């Protein structure tokens, strides 16, 4: 199905000037892993932030800088903006050190999301690697909110080690709610009783009908390339496999051209793309 | 309990092989059950068999002086453990430990090698399958070598 046909793929227009950040207060912070935290934010003006799964905001640590961060919260809870941030540098490091009560700035939500509703009536395979589960968590929550609308739903999650897995307390809940959740790590000690290997090894465990499956893939680009290829090898059409592409961004609204990838502006045409639109470009770093 | 030949016929590793060929292996094979935490084999031992996993999960471990036992791969039902039986010096490189209860068919390596020598069609069919397993494990290992979830890749 062409991407443009899914109505909720279109970003809800952010209120006011999209270049002006809205102040939000940090309500709570949970440490997910050694270098990653999940934070709940609430807008000072009390107005919720409606978003589609897969969209991101430009999140600003005042005086430090602004970075694109996917929304990892529940799309049914626009009052609470949830982000999961991994400390990889200046801005993300600063964001990972916030405490309840701190103020941050938010622009957005921006971008084109997963369009998970295109999977209604069929099977959905979610493949996530590392922090890539964060942008896919809203997909899982959206599916759970209307579980009966979807067929078989698999969540295949790969991480570097058991200690670096996100949302560990929720994975069992997802299974209990009728999702087929499989986890694999690159390496583990003996206390780990789960699988060790790469995320694509989980695909044979997922039951789906390739002709009516929507595949949603997020993680490091190399992992996405292999996972997307594994899905198409199983017979899922490239147009029904979607990946979330990360490129450095500035404005987030298609003005500055910073995130240009050949003919696409990742911030507005993406970050989610169908494989048949973006596949070959997954190997291109910055343009 | 089902005869061991039947267990081999129904196993994905042998899918596509003539039942007649699989039956040739029957004389080399026996059914084994391994309890959680017990070993199928240990590093340094002679690789005198290979295991066709029917139920449960097998962890391939290696002991590192500074980190203890690290699991470098797991093998699931439907897969096979080990190819050291096939390549000199026929010695195991890792420990193979049952994570939970494991049922497998253990195939005697000397018996199997003799059969492969005697019947090239069987040998070729088996080699194709072993090569497939080796190829998949090698690819998975290469990807993990790149440490894609590492700090340089935000994901
Ligand atoms: C659409 C989109 C959604 C994102 N969602 C999330 C999210 O939910 N959670 C999260 O933690 N991060 C997310 N990121 C990545 C995040 O924006 C970057 O990690 C951040 O911009 C790095 O800024 P910094 O100042 O902390 O690090 P810098 O000091 O700018 O860079 C530190 C290191 O990180 C590398 N780096 C910078 N940006 C990226 C990137 N986009 N991808 C890979 N490596 C990068 C740099 O090459 C450098 O090695 C997303 C990016 C995009 C484009």
UniProtKB/TrEMBL annotation, chain A:
Task: State where [2Fe-2S] cluster binds.
Answer: 251, 256, 259, 267
Alphabetically, which GO biological process terms does the record hold? pyrimidine nucleotide biosynthetic process
Gene Ontology molecular function terms on file: 2 iron, 2 sulfur cluster binding; flavin adenine dinucleotide binding; metal ion binding; oxidoreductase activity
Coiled-coil annotated residue ranges, if any: none
Claim: Transport is one of the keywords in the record: yes
What UniProt keywords are attached to this protein's entry? 2Fe-2S, Electron transport, FAD, Flavoprotein, Iron, Iron-sulfur, Metal-binding, Transport
Cofactor list? [2Fe-2S] cluster
- Domain FAD-binding FR-type: residue ranges: 19-116
Q: Which PANTHER family match?
A: ANAEROBIC SULFITE REDUCTASE SUBUNIT B, DIHYDROOROTATE DEHYDROGENASE B (NAD(+)), ELECTRON TRANSFER SUBUNIT
Protein name, as recorded: Ni/Fe hydrogenase subunit gamma
Q: Which organism is it from?
A: Nocardioides guangzhouensis
TrEMBL record, chain B:
- SMART domains referenced in this protein's UniProt entry, alphabetically: cNMP
Q: Which GO cellular component term is one of those annotated?
A: cytosol
Q: What is this protein called?
A: Cyclic nucleotide-binding domain-containing protein
Q: Name one Pfam family in it.
A: cNMP_binding
UniProt-listed PROSITE patterns: CNMP_BINDING_3
- State the organism's lineage: Bacteria, Bacillati, Actinomycetota, Actinomycetes, Propionibacteriales
Give GO MF terms, alphabetically. Answer: DNA-binding transcription factor activity
Question: Domain Cyclic nucleotide-binding, which positions?
Answer: 13-82
């Amino acid at each position: 199905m062409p991407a443009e046909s899914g109505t909720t793929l279109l970003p809800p227009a952010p209120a006011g000037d999209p270049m002006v950040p809205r102040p939000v207060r940090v309500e709570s912070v949970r440490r997910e892993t050694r270098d990653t935290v999940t934070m709940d934010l609430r807008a000072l003006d009390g107005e919720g932030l409606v978003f589609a799964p897969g969209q991101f905001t430009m999140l600003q640590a005042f005086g430090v800088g602004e970075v694109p961060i996917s929304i990892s919260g529940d799309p049914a809870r626009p009052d609470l903006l949830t982000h999961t941030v991994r400390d990889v540098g200046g801005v993300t490091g600063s964001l990972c050190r916030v405490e309840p009560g701190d103020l941050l700035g938010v622009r957005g939500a921006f971008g084109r999301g997963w369009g998970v509703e295109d999977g209604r009536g069929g099977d959905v395979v979610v493949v996530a690697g590392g922090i890539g589960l964060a942008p896919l968590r809203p997909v899982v929550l959206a599916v759970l909110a209307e579980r009966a609308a979807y067929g078989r739903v698999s969540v295949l999650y790969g991480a570097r080690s058991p200690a670096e897995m996100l949302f560990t307390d929720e994975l069992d809940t997802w299974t209990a709610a009728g999702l087929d959740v499989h986890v694999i790590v690159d390496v583990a000690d003996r206390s780990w009783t789960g699988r060790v290997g790469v995320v694509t090894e989980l695909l044979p465990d997922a039951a789906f009908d390739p002709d009516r499956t929507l595949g949603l893939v997020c993680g490091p680009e190399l992992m996405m390339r292999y996972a997307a290829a594994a899905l198409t090898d199983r017979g899922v059409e490239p147009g029904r496999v979607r990946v979330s592409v990360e490129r450095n961004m500035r404005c987030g609204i298609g003005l500055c051209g910073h995130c240009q990838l050949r003919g696409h502006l990742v911030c507005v045409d993406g970050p989610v793309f169908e494989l048949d639109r973006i596949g070959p470009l997954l190997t291109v770093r910055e343009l | 309990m089902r005869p061991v030949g039947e267990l081999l016929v129904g196993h994905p590793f042998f899918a596509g092989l003539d039942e007649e060929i699989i039956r040739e292996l029957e004389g080399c094979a026996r059914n084994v059950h391994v309890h959680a935490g017990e070993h199928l084999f240990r590093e340094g031992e002679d690789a005198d068999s290979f295991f066709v996993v029917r139920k449960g999960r097998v962890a391939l471990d290696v002991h590192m002086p500074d980190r203890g036992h690290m699991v470098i791969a797991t093998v699931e039902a439907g897969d096979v453990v080990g190819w050291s039986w096939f390549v000199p010096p026929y010695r195991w490189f890792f420990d193979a430990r049952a994570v939970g209860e494991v049922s497998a068919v253990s195939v005697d390596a000397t018996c199997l090698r003799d059969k492969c020598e005697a019947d090239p069609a069987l040998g070729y069919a088996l080699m194709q399958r072993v090569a497939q397993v080796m190829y998949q494990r090698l690819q998975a290992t290469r990807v993990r070598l790149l440490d894609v979830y590492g700090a340089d890749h935000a994901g």
